[in-house]
Predict the 3D structure of the following.
Amino acid sequence: MEIRENVPVTSLTTMRLGGNARYVISAKTPDEIAQAYSFAREHDLPIWVMGGGANTIGHDEGFPGVIILNEIKGIFVEQDGKFVTVDAVHQLSDELTLKGMGGEVWDDFVRVACDLGYSGIEALSMIPGTLGAAPVQNIGAYGQDMAQVIVSVEAYDTQTDQFVTIAKPEMELSYRHSRFNHGKDAGRFVIVAVTVKLHKGELSRPFYNSLERYVEEHHETDFSPSNIRRMICEIRSEKLPDPKEVASAGSFFKNVFVDKAGADEAEAKEIPIWRNADGSGKINSGWLIEACGLKGKELFGFVVSEKAALVLINKSAKTYHDLDRARQTIIDAVQEKFGYTLRQEPVEIPSLTEEK
Ligand SMILES: Cc1cc2nc3c(=O)[nH]c(=O)nc-3n(C[C@H](O)[C@H](O)[C@H](O)COP(=O)(O)OP(=O)(O)OC[C@H]3O[C@@H](n4cnc5c(N)ncnc54)[C@H](O)[C@@H]3O)c2cc1C
């Protein structure tokens, strides 16, 4: 296991904020995750687990403990009851059980599924970050999410120091929510492998709004997983910043969910709303931010993306204080105009003062 000292959190997160982490350990095997925990406990240091840092914000004080980076690689396909590497696959059926290790790049996992011709995660193409983080906030986009395909995860249980298998029903997955990021078990499990079940076939129309629009405009007729993936990559490249070039954490706020009465009220105010069968609905927070006139506006070194108002780009900000002021300006504007309180999507590395 590789241990580095005094590593800037800016280099570990796509929002590029934060001071130094006292230690960063890159874990390349499940055992190294356990060893990293032992190291932190021996030194009596707090621990924070990360993948690609695409949904994580650092604080100016840094982190006076151990950040564990999940870098465990490998993608496997189930064949005759065993998991084999993709090049050893000899027979494909209607269903595919695909397993990847937690440190795999999420989009590489999607590419493998699409190349093999299986549907289920093609609309989740190009979401930055690792496979291990994908169930944590139940990543979703363009009508698909992890909850639709996940079977189980293998995880290191930091309470018992055992490796356990957690099946989907025990994960409590919903919109940007899981047992891994909410409630008494938040942060308890380090996900070392994820297994999903995919199907031969294609997504059927109507697709999610922007995908449907793309299909109509480009007269697309091939809805195979790889072609949907190509379309999604094109749509996302147009709209969303490339984390390698532009600092952001993707959508900075969660969408707003309202019950039936709230949905009726929103509709009366001419706020676009996506209704569920029971009358409740979802309001796009990006729409609310745009309607407040904030799209493209620069706030304390951050810019509300001109292309997608839900995305907050770090143009020149250096401190968490700048983020705090930009965030509050947006929250206040939406609260004042519409009465909704926006909630932040990215998580924050705990702000702890140096203890040791
Ligand atoms: C440009 C851009 C676009 C984005 N688009 C989308 C989108 O369309 N849909 C969407 O849902 N998200 C989107 N995101 C957010 C982000 O890509 C996802 O949340 C992704 O899953 C983060 O992965 P990561 O490895 O970077 O997680 P990190 O930021 O490293 O970690 C996120 C959380 O997961 C925990 N965690 C990480 N790895 C593990 C593990 N192995 N075991 C247990 N806990 C772990 C961390 O402790 C933290 O709480 C976007 C982000 C960016 C920058």
Residues 14, 49-56, 70, 102, 127-130, 132-134, 136-137, 139-141, 180-181, 189-191, 240-241, 243, 248-250, 347 surround flavin-adenine dinucleotide (CB under 6 Å). The chain is about 25% helix and 30% strand. The helical segments are 30-42, 106-115, 209-217, 225-239, 260-268, 285-291, 320-338. Residues 320-338 form the longest helix (19 residues).
